[in-house]
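We close this part of the discussion by returning to an individual protein. The amino acid sequence and the backbone structure tokens for this protein are reproduced below:
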Amino acid sequence: MQQLLEQLTALHGPSGHEQPVSKWVRDTVKPLVDEVKVDALGNVIAVKKGARQGPAMVMTAHMDEVGFIVKKIEESGLLRFEKLGGNDDRLLLTQKVQLRTKSGLLTGVIGSISAHYAKFDDAGKVRNHRQLYIDIGAKNKEHAIELGVEVGTPVTWKPDMEFLGNETTGRFVGKGFDDRAGCAVLIQTLQELQDEDFAGTVTAVFTVQEEVGLRGAQVAARQVEADVAIALDTTAVSDTPEETMDASLALGAGTGIKVLDFSLISHPAVKEKLIRLANDNKITYQLEVFPGIGTDGGAMSLANHGIPTGVLSIPSRYAHSPVEVIDMEDLVATKELLKAFVLDLSEKSGFDFIN
């Protein structure tokens, strides 16, 4: 999955501007499924039919990443910007970014004063993103326009995935793991199902605009009839020493089986099935109660007449930053549990709220 993850995180696709990711995902999954389409919003919906009768299952992950959008080009050639998704103002200063123009990609830097001026400034001040700017090396406004920048140009962190430490750690640092890591798991699962005899129908939904309110999933969910759904996303761990951390979720401790977040109370039958399968297959997992996050699972659970929904969470440090960190063992555990869930489905499978 490392190669899949490298390819996915290199793509430029902030919320509402996922075209390169949608195209790449569509073309990649096309030979793996029976049907694939891209809907009007940009969601990629891929259907794979099993050899036997069984339930209709949806598995979903979002393609968009947090980013920015150009709001104004100053006469100096510096760029004012707005956020796309939940970026933390404390993390923005002096970070490399990448702009996608109609004529190609540009590298930029979110500017800050030199350290030599810090003694003349309020060292404790966190400037709002609207006070900040992106420097693309343009000499003036006309130069910036010549480089292809316009109001509405989308911006992401500059791609740079690599091992954290070295290859012995099994951990990676980069941008966009939220949720290209989930997309990699979906694609890897579809690849491994090629040689498997499974029941029912599996629909893989790669959604857009999750970071701005689960918008893609709300649209996609209305297009599918499903008996059960599993959403994949990253989750913020709490295993670092800050005073707000409670060590309830840890990197390297296995996939997270969602119990509750602000968008979803996991369906008990789905949650219990995931726990049983993890125990039966000796897949490492941790139970997740984290009201500070939401996923496409929330939108899926409310679709049509209601879809029994669970979530598998990929543990992550430093979420929504250019240096997100994940552990490959957690990623593999997530894939193994998702695959086990698919292969365990049968014509008799049911997910009633009351037995």
Remarks:
- Residues 2-65+175-344 form a domain with the Aminopeptidase fold (CATH 3.40.630.10).
- The chain has two domains: 2-65+175-344, 67-157.
